[in-house]
Amino acid sequence: MQSDTKAPLALKLSAIGGLVFLLAPIALIFLYAFTTEEKSYQFPPPGLTTKWLGVTLGRGDVWQALGLSLKVAAISTTIALVLGTLTAAAVARSRFFGREAISLLVILPIALPGIITGISLRSAFALLDIPFSTWTIVLGHATFCIVVVYNNAVARFRRTSGALIDAAMDLGADGVQTFRLVILPNIGTALLAGGMLAFALSFDEVIVTTFTAGNQSTLPIWMLEELVRPRQRPVTNVVAMAVVLVTVLPILAAYYLTKDGENTAGSEK
């Protein structure tokens, strides 16, 4: 039975204040993407214009950085979906010595500070004489993308009744059919949500990328360089606005996909 008790006014004001504190800087990014002043940040802006949208679309360096970010995020997410799902299936469905230790090692990369992961990867690449390329960035991003997919998949595997898989096998289904008709429908939304979160994390990652990119620039690295050496400041805000939209939309989609995860078939057994 739900209570009709209203929240105290102080609690409402605190919640509103917290939201303003978190969202006001993001609102300023959107505002300065349309300012007429290109050399400094004035508040309020002296005027508003949409010309920076066209300027941004005409900048070749922006498109190059965007293309690299999308490529890295897509490949990293694909690797994470495969390895994260397989690891989750092994940990959730099998009993073996060291299972908990493996689970801890899988989630360790996202628990460690990014600078530690970046330094360790850079040292490993130097030791193995691996030149910096798109694939070194992908390897760096895959370390934490796998964790996101793993966490989503292992939770859904544990809520899915093993009796469903046993019943499918008893009825003559082979491994591929069992996965396609029984397992995938139950874990599909969790994998989609994990993939979206992994893509968003990879797309806006900075610290690990700094140590694994060499002379390449993903979109967040490009933005960082533009802030250090400003050139047409509103262009940076237009790109930042696009990054916000690209990262927020997958996260919102992942939330709505997983909020009804308790309805997984067989989870009550």
UniProtKB/TrEMBL annotation:
Subcellular localization, as worded in the UniProt entry: Cell membrane
ABC transmembrane type-1 domain residues: 66-256
InterPro entries xrefs: Bact_Polyamine_Transport, MetI-like, MetI-like_sf
Recorded topology in the membrane: Multi-pass membrane protein
Alphabetic keyword roster: Cell membrane, Membrane, Transmembrane, Transmembrane helix, Transport
Entry keyword Nucleotidyltransferase: no
Keyword Membrane recorded: yes
CDD domains referenced in this protein's UniProt entry, alphabetically: TM_PBP2
Transmembrane segments: 9-34, 72-92, 104-126, 132-150, 238-257
A Pfam family hit: BPD_transp_1
One GO process term, biological-process aspect: transmembrane transport
Superkingdom of source: Bacteria
PROSITE patterns: ABC_TM1
Any Gene Ontology CC annotation: plasma membrane
Family label: Belongs to the binding-protein-dependent transport system permease family. CysTW subfamily.
Protein name per UniProt: ABC transporter permease
